[in-house]
Amino acid sequence: MSKNLFVKELAAFQSKFNSQLSKYFIQKLVKARSVSSEYTQLVKFLSAYLQAGGKRLRPFLLKQGFQIAGGKNNAQANQVGIALELFHNFALIHDDLMDGADLRRQRPTLHRQLAKWHQQRKWRGDSQEFGIGMAILAGDILLAWADELINNLKRPLILDIYQEMKSELMIGQAEDIFLSKINKIPTRQRIIKAALLKSAHYSVAKPMLMGAALENQKQKYQGLFDTLAEPLGLTFQLRDDILGVFGKQGAVGKSVSGDIEEGKMTLLMYYALRSGHLPPLLLKKTWGNNVATRREVTELKTSLKNSGALDKVSQDVDRQLTQAEKVINRSKLMNNKTKAIFLDLLIFFQTRDY
């Protein structure tokens, strides 16, 4: 098996999926023209936003779960895949609003784009308020469209998994905000639980389980997918936390100071705070301060690295990868090609720079 099998399989999937997504938005644009020119332009913004990039990881893992279960009805799998991508981008739009982020995929975040549109059209009212309000609605539109695709399947089991996924993600997001605001260092277990809700369940377990459920094989594969999702999802989230501080903005496509300025309580920050090696005055000036200077943020990053926190998170990633590798190699429900894809996926999760 090629050691780059996952990368090749994902690239082939992305090409087909992006074509399907483009056709979906063509249909939505046709319907939008019967509403108004402004609403049509909003749908164009959404179309451009979704087609500007993205790994398509959740639809890809849905397809893997579907194929592992012996899937044949590609039309339904494609429909669920588009729903997952719409839902994912709904979450990103709202996440950027909560974080006050300026960049996503090397482009202005949607609320910034919409504020600029308002300004260019010289409409009444405040451009920033318009951008925020319209981005909330734009995210809601994507959520409604995702719901529509799932409901149109008329598959109660798929709907149940989808509804559970939505609840878990939103609980995880709420916990993420609580952890960044409460006046105490939370437990490591609480941070990990939030990461599991935000990444393991939403990004890995539920997409794969929905794929199996399309073939009425949920019960057979749920144990495997749940066992695999925890180390995979945690690895994905922990790598995300590292990139959010130590990544390169050109590769990540968003600010690499945002996690510090927003005061995010990641496992990286947890280890650093518990180490006692962060200068208190520097911490007060930077963490949770969106007007911290670049120099102050850089100094805090150096202190984070020197605290040993980065090494501890890297060790956590290694442990998760070892666990996932054991699950894959011991599985009797995956063929050799699927095992090779997932073993290569582990390497991608560990080393990705975006």
Number of folding domains?
A: 1
CATH architecture heading: Orthogonal Bundle
* Distance, first to last CA: 25 Å
- The helical percent reads over 70%
- Rough shape? globular
CATH hierarchy, class: Mainly Alpha
Main beta-sheet strand count, sense and barrel state: 2 strands, antiparallel
Topology:
Layout: H1 5-32, H2 37-51, H3 57-68, H4 74-99, E1 103-104, E2 107-108, H5 110-121, H6 127-153, H7 156-181, H8 188-213, H9 218-246, H10 249-252, H11 258-261, H12 267-275, H13 280-286, H14 294-306, H15 309-330, H16 336-351
Helix pairs in contact: 1-2, 1-16, 3-4, 3-8, 4-6, 5-6, 7-8, 8-9, 9-15, 9-16, 12-15, 13-14, 15-16
Task: Briefly summarize what is shown.
The protein has 16 helices and two strands.
Describe this structure in words.
With 354 residues, this protein is mostly helical. The protein has a single domain (5-341), classed as Orthogonal Bundle (Farnesyl Diphosphate Synthase). Helix content is 78%, strand content 1%. It has 16 helices and two strands. The chain has a two-stranded antiparallel sheet. A hairpin with a 2-residue loop joins β1 and β2 (107-108). α3 (57-68) packs antiparallel against α4 and α8 (188-213) crosses α9. The radius of gyration is 21 Å and the shape is globular. The two termini are 25 Å apart.
